[in-house]
Amino acid sequence: MSPAAAALLPADLRVLERGWLSSNSVLMTGDPRGAVLVDTGYCSHVDQTETLIAHELAEAGESLRLIVNTHLHSDHCGGNARLRQLHGCPVLIPPGQFDAVQSWDEERLSYRPTGQRCPRFQADGIMQPGTVLAQAGREWEILAAPGHDPDAVMLFERRSGVLISADALWEHGFGIVFPEIDGVSGFDEVEQSLDLIESLPVRLVIPGHGAVFSGVGTALAEARSRLAFFRLHPDRHARHAAKALLMFHMLERGESSRADLLSWLERTPIHAVMWRQYFGAKSLQTWTEELLQELVRAAALQLDGEMIHCT
Ligand SMILES: [Zn+2]
Q: What is the pTM of this model?
């Protein structure tokens, strides 16, 4: 985090930043009722999440009263089950997938199509856009932020100008526009969410991944130019998404044999959907091999004989 951003971060907000496999988590402290945790990371990091949260709570001298999610991708709610049980606190989720959570429909929750894992958790209520989450004298406005995920929400607090943007806006871009991969509108919704952010007096952004930043105007301009490019070249968006999913899997595994990785990709429904929609002129194997080689050339992955490692 830059010194300018650090100076704008209120002392009652604690941000845990952990790269791309686990989303950032935000702990809202300073309320006599207890702390609120926004997002809980990926399940393979759950021991680390538990330790980090316990440490922050001990330092603040508080207990956890509530867990909320910006959206239900596996890297944002993988610690829900463990932390809900450990702290005995309710979990609030965005609307749209409440029933899918209660019946644990892994198809609708995206875990089966993406080949990602998320331990089953129970939801206790809804983060309804248009309402307010009150915490420590702050009023966090719950705002719908469709695009990356149709049901995603952001949290904005006017007094400090802090926006918890999740994957609607990062310092450099935004999350994969999953609805477009499924052949549903998503780019228009990304634009609406960027317009909404631009209309707010935002001074500091806590994104879902990457560093907290203060230059919201620069980030919005970069996001808009990226969006314009993807609109013109939806195949490049799909290719970017395919590489991101492959990298997510590799970050989870650390290393894999080439054969295991290829067989995992062939079994992962969303990978085949992207291939069929945009790259069906070549075989699935050829396309997958191309993606792998691109990631090796970009030094994101390293080939060591038949083994593939994250760099
Ligand atoms: Zn996401």
A: 0.95
